[in-house]
Design brief:
Topoisomerase, domain 3; 20 helices; Topoisomerase II, domain 5; about 900 residues; DNA negative supercoiling activity; 4-stranded mixed beta sheet; Gyrase A, domain 2; 4 domains; single chain
Length: about 900
C-alpha cells in the first residue's frame, strides 16, 4: 500500500498541456461558440429556457429581468450575473439582433453605446419568434443533461424551427479561435433551406440566385438590423463558399442642399454600419476635423430621435460634398468591414461552415426533432386511443360493468374483475366511430374484448355523465380522430418524403409569421475607395522644367491675378534651369511619360507633388521606376482620356514614327510598360498626341525636313517598331518632331554654332514653303548646314510671340523672343542667335512656357499645353 505522503512524479509539460486543452474545450463548447443546430451559446439557451419554464412567454405579462437572471444563475449558469444580463440585453436589442429573441421593456441600451439600465429596473418576456425556437421542447425532441450540481435537467439544444445560426448570427472569442457570423434575412434563409430540402444537390451559387419559377428568393447576403449598404458581392460569395470572407459595409448618406443656403451642402446620414457606435463615430469625425485631416466640414450635429437616425454634417461653401463624403468613408466607420468567420459547434467539435453546410446541419437537426416529436405524439395518441376504446366498450355494456363494480368489495377487486370481463360490442363501437370496413372486420375477428389495467382504472374514475348516449357518440368520434392521427403519424415515420414535407410546411409557416423585407441594400459595384475618390477633380497648372523637375499648383493661384497685370513667375529655379512646359489639366487626368528606351510610365496629375509657385518641385527620376543606368525621360504628355479617337505619335532619332491609339496605354503598371519598340542603337526622341487630321514636321541634323499627314502612318500596337518617317542619309539623325496645327505659324531652325532663322509656313503669295510629302522620303532642306552653321539642333513650329531658350554645352543660356529672329527662306543659313567659342556648341532649344517677369501670364485652356508637349521634355541634363 502506497504511503499517503508519497510523491508521484508528473511532467509539468504534460499537465499544462492536458489542463489547457481541457480549459480550451470547455470555453469553446461551453461558453463562446454557438451550436450549429439552434445557433445559440449555452448562456443564451439557458436564458430562453428559463423564461419558457417560468411562463414568461410572448403574450404574457413581462417580469423583472432580475428574476430571470436569478433563476438562470441558480439553476443553470454558475457564472457572474453580468454575463447573464448582458446576454439577455443583447437578445432584446433591435440594433444588435436582426430578429430579437426577447421583448424588453425599459432601457435596454442604444446604438450610441449607452448601457442598459440595471436588471432590477427592466422587464422582459420572450418574443414571438422565440416561441418557434422553443416549440415542442416538452415532447422529448432534444436530449437533456444534468445542470452543474445534478439537481436539475437542462436541454442540450433547443428544437428551433428557425435556422437561427444564420438568421441572427453570432460572435464570440474562444481559446485559439473566434466566430463572427453576420445576420441574414429570415425569408431568404428559409427559402434556401427549402431549396436544399427539395434539391439536395443544389450548389451555393444556385442558392444565391433567384428561382422565380419555384418562388425562391435566393440568399443575397447578410442583412443587418442597422440597414446601410453592402458594397461588392465578392466577399459575400467567398463567405458563402468557404465560411470566411470580408463584407464591406457602408452608411447610407445623402448630399443635400442646406435649407436657406443654396450655395452650401450638407451630408445627412440616416443608417450606419452594423455594430458601429454612433457616438464614437461622431467623436471621430470631430477629431479629424479638429486635426484638419478632413477639411470642408463646418458643423456636425446629431438630430436622431425616436423616429429614426439623422446625423447632419454641414459643409463649407466651396467644399465638394462627394469628396468630403469619400474621405469620411475612408477615415471613419461610416465604412467598415465585417470579417465573416462562420465557426460553430458540430457534433461537439468546432467547425467552419459554408452556407450550404450550415443549412444542411439545421435540416438534419429538424429531421431528428420532427422524428422524435412524431414518435412522442404517436405514443401519446395510441395511449389515448386505448383509453377511449376502453371507455367506449364500457358504454356498450353499461349494466354489466356497473353490476361488476357494485359486487366488488373495494377498488382493487373491481379493477381486477373488470379486466376479466369478456366484453362484447367492439365491432359496434368501431362501426359507430365511422372507421373503414377493414377495421370493422378486424374488430369482429377479435371477438371478446378484455380491458387492460389502464382501461379498467379509467372506467372506475369515469363520471356517470359519460354514460349518456351523447357521450357515447363523443367517444366514438374521438376514437375515429385518434385513429386518423395515428395513421398519419405512422405514415410520416415510414416515409422520408412525408417527414421532409412536414419540415417544409413548418418552415413556410415560420416565413409567413416572422419574415420581412431586406433592410441592408447590396450594391454590386466594389465599394473600395480609391485615392482618386478623395481628391477633387479641379484644374491644376503643371510645370516641367528643362532640368526635369515637376510640380502642380492649383489653377486658382494663377487666376487670382488679372491677365493684364505684371504677371507671376511659375517657379524660382536655378540659374541654368527654366520652365520648359506649362499645361493645365484636371487633377484626375494622366501624365504619360516616355523614356528614350521606349518604356511608358503614367502618373495621375494629383500624384505630382503640390508645391508653391516659388518651389521647383520634384525630379522626374524620383517619381518613376526608370532604370538609373542610362534611361531618361524623353517626353511628357498630358492625357485627359485614353480613348480610341486620339493617338500617340512617337518619333525616334533614327527616323522611325509610330501611331498608337491612346487606349492601348490605359492599363499601366507602376513599373512601366513597353510604349515603343526601339531598335538597338536608336532612341525615342519625341511624342505628341494627334488625331487623323494632324500634320507632322520632322527635322534632321543635316538640315533636312519632311512634312506629311498623320494618317499616312497606319495605327499599330504598343509593342511594335513603327514605320519610316524620313529617309536619313548616312550619318544623319532626327533632331525634332513637331505638329503643324496652324498655317499662320512659322518654323524656327537653330544650328549647333548658334545661328538661326524663322521661316513662315506660307510665303507672301500664300504658297506653302513646306510642301506636303509622303512619309519615308528624303524630305526638303530646312536650313543650310554649312561649316559656319554646323548641324541643325532644333526645328520647332512657333508663333512670333513665343520665347525660346537656347542652351549650349558650356552652360550658356540665352532667352529671346521669336519675333526678334530674322525671317528667311528655307534654303538659307540664318543669323547669329548666340555666340559660341572653341568647342562649345548649342545642344538644345526650348520654347519657354513662362513669360518674362513684368509680362502678362496667360494660361492655356484646360487640356492644352503651352507650348504643346513635343520633344520639350527634360534636356540632356535630366
Amino acid at each position: 500500500m502506497a504511503n499517503a505522503s508519497q510523491t508521484i512524479p508528473h511532467s509539468i509539460d504534460d499537465e499544462m498541456r492536458a489542463s489547457y486543452v481541457a480549459y480550451a474545450m470547455s470555453v469553446i463548447v461551453g461558453r463562446a461558440i454557438p451550436d450549429a443546430r439552434d445557433g445559440l451559446k449555452p448562456v443564451h439557451r439557458r436564458v430562453l429556457y428559463s423564461m419558457h419554464e417560468q411562463g414568461i412567454r410572448a403574450g404574457s405579462a413581462p417580469k423583472k429581468s432580475a428574476r430571470v437572471v436569478g433563476d438562470v444563475l441558480g439553476k443553470y449558469h454558475p457564472h457572474g450575473d453580468a454575463s447573464v444580463y448582458d446576454a439577455l440585453v443583447r437578445m432584446a436589442q433591435d440594433f444588435a439582433m436582426r430578429y430579437p429573441l426577447i421583448d424588453g421593456q425599459g432601457n435596454f441600451g442604444s446604438v450610441d453605446g449607452d448601457p442598459a439600465a440595471a436588471m432590477r429596473y427592466t422587464e422582459c418576456r420572450l418574443s414571438k419568434i422565440s416561441t418557434d425556437i422553443l416549440a415542442d421542447i416538452d415532447k422529448e425532441t432534444v436530449d437533456w443533461r444534468p445542470n452543474y450540481d445534478d439537481a436539475e435537467l437542462e436541454p442540450s439544444v433547443l428544437p428551433s424551427r428557425i435556422p437561427n445560426l444564420l438568421v441572427n448570427g453570432s460572435a464570440g472569442i474562444a481559446v485559439g479561435m473566434a466566430t463572427n457570423i453576420p445576420p441574414h434575412n429570415l425569408r431568404e434563409i428559409v427559402d434556401a433551406t427549402i431549396r436544399v430540402i427539395r434539391f439536395p444537390e443544389i450548389t451555393i451559387d444556385e442558392l444565391m440566385a433567384n428561382d422565380d419559377a419555384n418562388g425562391f428568393l435566393g440568399v443575397k447576403g447578410p442583412d443587418f438590423p442597422t440597414r446601410g449598404f453592402i458594397y461588392g458581392t465578392s466577399g459575400i460569395r467567398q463567405a458563402f463558399l468557404t465560411g470566411r470572407g470580408r463584407v464591406v459595409m457602408r452608411a447610407r448618406a445623402e448630399i443635400e442642399p442646406m435649407p436657406g443656403k443654396n450655395d452650401r451642402e450638407m451630408i445627412v446620414v440616416t443608417e450606419i454600419p452594423y455594430q458601429v457606435n454612433k457616438a464614437e463615430l461622431l467623436k471621430k469625425i470631430a477629431e479629424l476635423v479638429r486635426e484638419k485631416k478632413i477639411e470642408g466640414i463646418s458643423d456636425l450635429r446629431d438630430e436622431s430621435d425616436r423616429d429614426g437616425m439623422r446625423v447632419v454634417i454641414e459643409l463649407k461653401r466651396d467644399a465638394p460634398g462627394q469628396i468630403v463624403l469619400n474621405q469620411l468613408y475612408q477615415q471613419t466607420q461610416l465604412q467598415s468591414t465585417f470579417g465573416v468567420n462562420c465557426l460553430a459547434i458540430v457534433h461537439g467539435q468546432p467547425q467552419v461552415l459554408n452556407l450550404k453546410s450550415a443549412i444542411q446541419i439545421f435540416i438534419s437537426h429538424r429531421r431528428e426533432v420532427v422524428t422524435r416529436r412524431t414518435r412522442f405524439d404517436l405514443r401519446k395518441a395510441k395511449e389515448q386511443r386505448e383509453l377511449v376504446e376502453g371507455l367506449g366498450m364500457a358504454t356498450t355494456e353499461v349494466d354489466l360493468v356497473v353490476r361488476t363494480i357494485r359486487e366488488s368489495r373495494d377498488q382493487d377487486e373491481a379493477r381486477d374483475r373488470l379486466m376479466k370481463l369478456p366484453l362484447k360490442g367492439l365491432e359496434e363501437f368501431v362501426r359507430r366511430a365511422g372507421r373503414p370496413e377493414n377495421e370493422i372486420t378486424a374488430a369482429k375477428a377479435r371477438g371478446d374484448y378484455f380491458l387492460s389495467e389502464r382501461q379498467a382504472k379509467a372506467i372506475l374514475e369515469m363520471r356517470l355523465a359519460r354514460l349518456t348516449g351523447l357521450e357515447r357518440e363523443k367517444l366514438a368520434g374521438e376514437y375515429g380522430e385518434l385513429s386518423d392521427l395515428i395513421a398519419k403519424l405512422e405514415a410520416i415515420l415510414g416515409s422520408e418524403a412525408l417527414l421532409l414535407d412536414v419540415i417544409v410546411d413548418e418552415l413556410k409557416e415560420v416565413r409567413e409569421k416572422h419574415g420581412d423585407d431586406r433592410r441592408t441594400e447590396i450594391v454590386a459595384a466594389e465599394g473600395d475607395i480609391s485615392i482618386e475618390d478623395l481628391i477633387a477633380n479641379e484644374p491644376m497648372a503643371v510645370t516641367v522644367t528643362h532640368g526635369g523637375y515637376l510640380k502642380r499648383v492649383p489653377l486658382t493661384e494663377y487666376r487670382a491675378q488679372g491677365r493684364g497685370g505684371k504677371g507671376t513667375r511659375a517657379a524660382e529655379l536655378r540659374e541654368e534651369d527654366f520652365v520648359a512646359q506649362l499645361f493645365v489639366a484636371n487633377a484626375h487626368a494622366d501624365l504619360l511619360f516616355l523614356s528614350d528606351k521606349g518604356k511608358a510610365y503614367a502618373k495621375k496629375v494629383y500624384e505630382i507633388p503640390v508645391a508653391s509657385r516659388a518651389s521647383r518641385g520634384r525630379h522626374v527620376n524620383n517619381m518613376l521606376a526608370v532604370d538609373p543606368q542610362g534611361e531618361r525621360i524623353a517626353a511628357i504628355v498630358p492625357v485627359e482620356k485614353f480613348d480610341e479617337e486620339h493617338f500617340l505619335l512617337t518619333c525616334t532619332r533614327g527616323g522611325t514614327v509610330k501611331r498608337t491609339a491612346l487606349s492601348a496605354y490605359a492599363n499601366m503598371r507602376s513599373s512601366g510598360i513597353i510604349g515603343v519598340q526601339i531598335e538597338d542603337g536608336d532612341q525615342l526622341l519625341a511624342a505628341r498626341i494627334v488625331d487623323v487630321k494632324s500634320e507632322v514636321l520632322i527635322g534632321t541634323a543635316k538640315g533636312m525636313s519632311i512634312r506629311f499627314q498623320v494618317e499616312d502612318v497606319r495605327p499599330m500596337g504598343r509593342d511594335t517598331r513603327g514605320v519610316r518617317g524620313i529617309d536619313l542619309r548616312e550619318g544623319d539623325r532626327v533632331i525634332g518632331m513637331d505638329v503643324i496645327d496652324d498655317e499662320s505659324k512659322q518654323v524656327l531652325a537653330i544650328s549647333a554654332n548658334g545661328y538661326g532663322k524663322r521661316t513662315p509656313l506660307k510665303d507672301a503669295e500664300g504658297n506653302s514653303t513646306w510642301r506636303m510629302q509622303n512619309r519615308g522620303g528624303l524630305g526638303i532642306i530646312a536650313m543650310e548646314t554649312s561649316e559656319r552653321n554646323g548641324e541643325l539642333v532644333a526645328l520647332r513650329v512657333v508663333s512670333p510671340d513665343d520665347q525660346v531658350m537656347v542652351i549650349t554645352n558650356g552652360g550658356q543660356i540665352i532667352r529671346t523672343h521669336v519675333h526678334q529672329i530674322r525671317e528667311a527662306g528655307r534654303n538659307t543659313q540664318g543669323v547669329r542667335i548666340i555666340r559660341v567659342s572653341g568647342d562649345e556648341r548649342v545642344v538644345d532649344v526650348e520654347r519657354l512656357a513662362e513669360p518674362e517677369e513684368g509680362e502678362p501670364a496667360p494660361l492655356p485652356e484646360l487640356g492644352e499645353s503651352m507650348p504643346p508637349p513635343g520633344d520639350e521634355g527634360p534636356g540632356e541634363d535630366a
